[in-house]
Sequence to fold (158 residues):
Amino acid sequence: MENITTEDMFDLGAWLGRKQAFTLIAGRCSAATVVCLRKIREGKRYRALGLTWEEFCRQRAGVSRAFADKVIQQLEQLGPAYFELSSVTRITPDQFRQIADAVTEEGLSYAGEPIEIIPKTPHAGASHRDPDQRPADEFAPEPPTEPLPEPSVPCAPP
Fold:
């Protein structure tokens, strides 16, 4: 077994915590969740627990190795824009590839004009709050004590 430092353990814990928080908040697979998984896999951070990648996925990430590898591959091939769009529509990777050139940071480009997919400004009538005061829902949730289940809404339909 290789030398595992305390820093390695904290690093792994931080990435796991981020992954769990993003999953709980989003309720689905987000690019941020997949980035966390990719960082753990690429850095072999799962070894800090004495686990293989497959064991780590099942026991700690709450997904199968095949699912984790698939969404990491989708992130690498399609980028974060795919996950953003798939969070609000039922779009497959193949469908995204067909419109990928029209997807920009501003939204979906049609006739030279961007169509905002996810509004970046608050809805009209949204209440304003003191910027120094954080609402309760902004505090990080407690991490689950058991592995997370397979997402009920997968990142890409089978």
Remarks:
- The helical segments are 6-26, 31-42, 53-61, 65-78, 80-86, 93-99.
- The first helix runs from residue 6 to 26.
- The chain has a mean pLDDT of 74.
